[in-house]
Queue: 2 jobs
Job 1
Amino acid sequence: MKIIEIPDKKIVYSGIQPSGTFTVGNYFGAMKNWVNLQEDYHSLFCVVDLHAITMPQNPEELRRRTYESIALLLALGINPDKSILYVQSMVPEHCELTWILNCCTYMGELSRMTQFKDKSQKQGENIRVGLFDYPVLMAADILLYQTDLVPVGNDQRQHVELARDIAIRFNQQFGHTFKVPEAYFGESGARIMSLQEPTRKMSKSDDNLNSFISLLDDPKTIIKKFKRAVTDSEMAVYHDREKKPGVSNLMEIYACATGNCLDDITTEFEGKGYGDFKAAVGEAVAETLLPVQRDYHRLLKEKDYLKQIMRTHSEKASMMAWKTLAKARKQVGFVTV
Ligand code: TRP
């Protein structure tokens, strides 16, 4: 691994929950960005198990999914010689900074978070403090590493905004400690929608299994799901998100899988029916995922290797995090001896 802190390279930080299946939407929308960014930035990617327990989890399943997430990120192309790929709970600095930042964050700010409002509504009566505090933990994740860029989906925009506000407030009150990060949304067009209701985002928690493609779906399933994808009655392949949300979504998925642009795709399917088009999309996606799946299944069997990555990378992350935490501790007036 290269030396971590070369000053001329900016720092990219992102996290993902160990929630079992990831979809092609997660891949084309987020993780593919990560893989590209690691070439030009010092990157840290974190499997956020502390965030996961803000919702009820089965302990054995959480542990298994943490391994699976690390294996999948490696299979997707996160390069452990270039990036730091680690597990949040293995770096205790995250919790400690969260506490300090809790004391600089207002109840009102957290009450306004739309994700909290959505999730707490679903939880009914006993809303957990951890769920309310989720964005502060995320701010700690980001601020510990003097992060420049945070590649996230649109749903996390508000949380990154809050991390900026907290950083600015802390710096003003205690003196400069944190870099103020920026959200990074990557190239446009990577917002992959449901195959069944193409005006909604593709989601792994959708009850209709035909609405999303899991990264681990086998080729037959992938092709079948694309065959069943909702289109329209016009029978012409061109891009118009308003008029043709289904076809446009399939075109974007095809573009992500093949690297072809939308115009070329229109030309490719001129005069052809939706049957041919959907089959081509299915095959392209299946073909893209096949090597990823092969690597994933191989890596999952290499438990010792995964453990070694988790251990060494968490140590590296911890060393970086400690520098920032030590400074914050000093600024707020904790004793150092
Ligand atoms: N909350 C993010 C999500 O659900 C995951 C996350 C946790 C994260 N910590 C982060 C993303 C820090 C970016 C930076 O998608």
Job 2
Amino acid sequence: MEVYNPTSFEADIGSCPKEWESGPITLDMIDRIICHYVPSNEKGKITMNKLEQLYEGKAKKVFSTEDPDVVIVSYKDDATAFDGLKKGTITGKGAINNQMTNFLMQQLEKAGVPTHFVEELSERETAVKKVSIVPLEVIVRNVSAGSFAKHYGVEEGIVFDAPTIEFSYKNDDLHDPLINDYHAVALHLATWEEIDQIKKYAFQVNDFLKAELLACGVTLVDFKLEFGKTADGTIVLADEISPDTCRFWDAKTGEKLDKDRFRRDLGNVEGAYQEMSKRLMGK
Ligand code: UDP
């Protein structure tokens, strides 16, 4: 084995794989650094490369990287609604959703909710932990709207005394039906422990987001979360938190600042996404 003896060479490679931290640095390792990692301007930071496309969804593409535990998510401007029946483009949405998700996830992480976030790579690309998605859409509501208002025959805008939570089974063929936790356990979609943990995190996210948004003059009506399991079985918040997955209403006027503008043909869709970006992130 050819071995490079690092007498004056210091490997400043930030998040290098564990096995590189001890033992000699081989020429093969250096080749992997040079060929696969492009160091960013920030000292100690590694920038990953997209290798193979693993998946393309309605709003995102997912790529493998050199690190088997990390994938790159690339946000698209494509928009769909009503189970994919309505299709369109919201220009600039991918960049806003990427940056808003990362902005919120980094704060949630600090507030004690583990997330899949690793590193923002560009306007619309982010490195995230590779997880297996728990096939449940977790919906938290503070105010009646959308399918809740329709199912239960009530008007939109009723403020609940306490937030509600519900699950949909993520299954395109079945059109994501509502499911309760007993059914989710019976179908082995998650264990009771995982469901308890997911509910705890979802309400924590609600408390954090509600306060954060209120400070920007926005009412958090409802939102959808997805959780994933890392290789060691840890439950982490995954997917996105954006105007695609939340209902945001201006706290004073009630103006809709989310994907309902697209779903309901209300106009100024791009403007609503930009307004949310400005209010939350100042850009
Ligand atoms: N939601 C989502 N993806 C879905 C369904 C819902 O992100 O596939 C979000 C939606 O944006 C809203 C919340 O979850 O913020 C509750 O949606 P609802 O059940 O009212 O369904 P909708 O009226 O959007 O069909």
